[in-house]
Design brief:
The chain is an alpha+beta fold. It has helices spanning about 20-30, 55-70, 85-95, 100, 115-130, 140-160, 175-180; strands at about 5-10, 35-40, 45-55, 75-80, 85, 115. The longest helix is centred in the C-terminal third of the chain and has 22 residues, at about 140-160. The chain is elongated, with a radius of gyration of 18 Å.
Length: about 180
């Protein structure tokens, strides 16, 4: 059964000027007509996508491969988000104020006020079923689940990019990954 996932792909663009409309057209031509495309940084392209599939990691990599084919030569998959998130990011997805989250027990931040998205999911899932004497949360975790689930896969993809198990130019497993899997 297909599940929906919400994530952002960040591509590093080669040096030089790039037409924002051409970059957007490449995303749309890859089949992501509803994507939100960010071209604010001349060296990066951000693409926010909602897509369906069997598992988040496969959906993320399929989207990256499709989009990379239409981007300028030398473009690379730089990172996948959400991976590390702020309380403001999480509050926005849950449609609550950041202060509402600060009043709850949160996981320890990893660095600079950023949290692992899967740690946040664990804590928020536990908060949905409060213990005796604790109040129920005023957020709808199910509405943001597709973002949180994609975040766990985003962490795996980012780790594989870092460990060079995924080629950032093609978003395909490297020979090293294939040897490791054998």
């Amino acid at each position: 059964m297909a599940e929906a996932f919400e994530f952002e792909l960040v591509f590093a663009l080669p040096d030089g000027a790039h037409d924002p409309y051409s970059l957007s057209d490449a995303v749309f031509a890859a089949g992501y007509e509803d994507a939100v495309v960010g071209t604010g940084n001349p060296r990066l392209l951000g693409v926010e996508i909602e897509a369906e599939g069997e598992d988040a990691e496969s959906v993320i990599l399929m989207a990256a491969r499709s989009i990379l084919k239409g981007l300028p030569a030398g473009s690379k998959l730089h990172e996948v988000r959400p991976d590390l998130v702020s309380l403001a990011d999480v509050a926005e997805k849950l449609k609550v104020k950041r202060q509402a989250l600060q009043q709850r027990e949160m996981p320890l931040p990893l660095a600079g006020g950023l949290y692992r998205v899967d740690d946040m999911l664990t804590v928020l899932t536990a908060a949905v079923e409060p213990g005796p004497g604790r109040r129920r949360p005023r957020f709808d975790l199910d509405a943001a689940r597709k973002w949180f689930v994609a975040g766990t896969a985003a962490r795996r993809v980012n780790a594989k990019l870092t460990m060079q198990q995924i080629d950032p130019v093609t978003a395909e497993p490297t020979d090293m990954q294939q040897v490791t899997a054998s």
